[in-house]
Amino acid sequence: MKKRIFSVLVCLAVLVSTTMFQVGASYQPTDARQAEIDALIAKTDSHVLEAESINTSEVLPFIQASAVYEQDDGTQTPVDVDLQIQKLGTLTRAAGGGTLYEVKASTKKEEGSAGGGRKVQANATLYWIDNLGPVNELYRVKGEWINSLYDTANPESAGVLYGEFPANVPGDSCVAKHPNAMSFDYYADDITGYTLGVQTSIKCEKNGILYLIVTSSIFS
Predict the structure, then answer these.
(1) Beta-strand (E) ranges in 49-194?
(2) Which residues form the signal peptide (predicted)?
(3) Are 66 and 78 in contact (CB under 8 A)?
(4) pTM passes above 0.85
(5) 67 with 198: CB under 8 angstroms?
(6) Above 50 in pLDDT, residue 17?
(7) Burial of residue 138 (number of CB atoms within 10 Å: 0-12, 13-18, 19+)
(8) pLDDT of 63-82, one tens digit each?
(9) Angle in degrees, CA 29, 32, 34, rounded to 5
(10) Cα–Cα distance between 155 and 69 in angstroms, integer?
(11) Which phi-psi region, left, alpha or beta, contains residue 48 (left: φ > 0; alpha: ψ -120 to 50)?
(12) Which of 14, 45, 190, 209 has the most other CB atoms within 10 Å of its CB?
């Protein structure tokens, strides 16, 4: 009996999460810390960062991204994802320390695939801080959906889930949003944890629902 891709992933994630212990460390945002983070993001030059791209397989093996199309009949088709990771800089000790990373993920447009031809494109960006110790910090998530020539998405169906994963039930450490638009940009409010991520979803007119998930973790 075939098990659906997401069901397997969620079950495994829940199993891993039950073995984790709670850590009391919490990185409270301050004006100085936020100012430094925003300054690092604002001064980012895409051409410079492209030349300084990190080899994810050697330096940051704990970043994962996946995308799936789920058709109306429940059939799920994996979709290729482009992943880019950039180190934006290190925060000063006065601002609490930590290293700021930017993770960008984007689904690839495909024609003639099992999912039904060229699809709506989904992009997501995750900003997170690698703090000293096991507890990392989520700072910001943003993204967009782009219609293709052959399919369109309904902005009223757009959904975003971000925070500590696995995100089984939205709560203090996991936030659910419905932007009702083809783009989003949210700042996390004191969200820390082992595995931080963002999941986006949107209803496509022809091919069901497109899911994109990006996570960072201290575990491989």
Answers:
(1) 63-70, 76-79, 81-90, 99-107, 121-130, 136-146, 153-164, 174-177, 183-193
(2) 1-25
(3) yes
(4) no
(5) no
(6) no
(7) buried
(8) 888 999 888 888 898 988 99
(9) 50
(10) 17
(11) alpha
(12) 209
Residue type at 130?
D
Residue 219's pLDDT band, with cuts at 50, 70 and 90, is low
Tell me the C-alpha distance between 12 and 177, whole Å. 25
Radius of gyration of the chain (CA): 18
Beta bridge partners of 217: 195
Work out the number of other CB atoms within 10 angstroms of the CB of residue 220.
6
User: Domains of the chain: which residue ranges?
Assistant: 28-217
Cα–Cα distance, 122 to 200 (Å, whole number): 8
Q: Residue 156 is encoded by which pair of tokens?
A: 């009223």
Whether 216 and 197 have beta carbons less than 8 Å apart is answered as yes
Instruction: Give the distance from CA 220 to its chain's centroid.
Output: 16
